[in-house]
Amino acid sequence: MKFSPSLANLIDALRALPGVGPKSAQRMTLHLLERDREGALALATALETAVAKIGHCSRCRNFTELEICEICCDPRRDHKLICVLETPADVLAVEQSGSFRGLYFVLMGHLSPIDGIGPREIGLDAFQQRVLDEGISEVILATNPTVEGEATAYYLTDMLLPHGVRVSRIAHGVPLGGELEYVDGSTLAHAFSGRRLLQQEQ
Amino acid sequence: MKFSPSLANLIDALRALPGVGPKSAQRMTLHLLERDREGALALATALETAVAKIGHCSRCRNFTELEICEICCDPRRDHKLICVLETPADVLAVEQSGSFRGLYFVLMGHLSPIDGIGPREIGLDAFQQRVLDEGISEVILATNPTVEGEATAYYLTDMLLPHGVRVSRIAHGVPLGGELEYVDGSTLAHAFSGRRLLQQEQ
Zinc finger (C4-type) locations (chains A, B) (predicted)? Predict the structure, then answer.
């Protein structure tokens, strides 16, 4: 059986969403048409508005509707501390943890020479300039602990240290609430090599 | 952290899709904005077109862009045989199995007095008229084997039998490839009560 063209077209278009295969797309389409045509129209409008309005902050490259995002403008944050992350989702995770009150720099990816993504593509040339110009006191590297993330962190370290910038990497180890038994080997190796000496309290 | 308004709005709008919670909606939003803005725009257009164009076939109530759908118009199908189903997704499933070459009638739901869905809401008055007017030879009830589906099938039987219409119900039992060990009790009960006597081949 062939679907009518605009139905087939919608099923196809829904597959642009991550994690949506042909069966889910079909279910979503039938659901929207049967029960939520208003929701479908609202979604269409939201998509168009978001694509039209949302760009990148000219300072941190995070998503924003403004020229400079709210975080970069916030005078209550520490403007001498920059945390480097791979994606806007990472910014959200850190913000939700409430553990950081400095500024961010979002790479929108990581170094990946095979895919043609070099330092310029992730904005590192402009970033270096900014760090030097603004006298940043510390750059915290929070790229993912993957091969590409580590390579990116290594490149940044190499780029900033010669200029006397203080650079740090977030700690990797056993997650809180994680049971040692279920933690993978490389995490455990990180946990051991990154161990800290405990001191007797004074 | 607050999202920028059009980003928050898109995350919210995506939740109209079945099976999409706040976390998936956030992931979808960031994915579309980071990597597939074209796909996002195409999806917006597809949604608008589908909602604008797709209505119900005036004969079988299935989704179509035409006044009467392709199946109802198809002269190669048996126009004296009607299969009654609950949703357009059910039509798809039957069509994909290739096991039926008659016409359909899609209830777009089932009888559910609690939700105010009576015979008129699922089009049964018009259906009865059509069955009698067109001299339909057999009505096959393929509503779901749920309480509401069974009640709907029962209502249809009760409505059509007095007029001398031949009415049948699809068989329920152990699915092919299903192992008896894992089949639920009520399916097994159906399978036993619906057993057929085997005859020696002539």
Answer: 57-72
Contact flag A43-B13 (C-beta cutoff 8 Å)? yes
DSSP bridge pairs for A140: A83, A168
pLDDT in tens, A109-164: 899 988 889 999 899 999 999 999 998 999 999 999 889 999 999 999 999 999 98
Q: Is the ipTM of this complex over 0.85?
A: no
Q: Is B160 within 8 Å of B138 (Cβ atoms)?
A: no
Nearest residue, CB atoms, B47 vs list A10, A66, A69: A10
A32, B9: Cβ pair inside 8 Å?
Answer: no
- What CATH number did the domain enclosing A38 receive? 1.10.8.420
Contact with chain A for residue B9, Cβ under 8 A: yes
What confidence tier does A80 reach under pLDDT thresholds 50, 70, 90?
Answer: very high
Q: Is A113 in the same domain as A72? A: yes
Query: Which of A:15-74 have CB within 8 Å of B?
Result: 16-19, 24, 26-34, 36-37, 39-51, 53-54, 63-66, 69-71
Listed range (A66-80, A177-191, B116-130) with the worst mean pLDDT: A177-191
What is the domain range of residue A67? Answer: 63-169
Contact A13 B63 (CB under 8 A): no
Instruction: Examine the domain organization and report whether A81 and A156 are in the same domain.
Output: yes
| DSSP character string of B102-126 | EEEEE-SS--BGGGTB-TTTTTHHH
Query: Is B60 within 8 Å of B105 (Cβ atoms)?
Result: yes
Q: What is the pLDDT of residue A1?
A: 55
Contact B50 A42 (CB under 8 A): no
Residue indicated by tokens 């928050």? B8
Assess whether A141 and A72 both reside in one domain: yes
CA closest to A107 among chain B residues? B34
**What's the confidence (pLDDT) of residue B160?**
92
Distance CA B145, CA A167 (A): 64
CATH number at residue B130: 3.40.1360.10
Nearest by CB to residue A7, choosing from B54, B87, B108, is B54
Flag whether residue B12 sits within 8 Å of chain A, measured between CB atoms: yes
CA angle B48, B53, B56 (to 5 degrees): 130
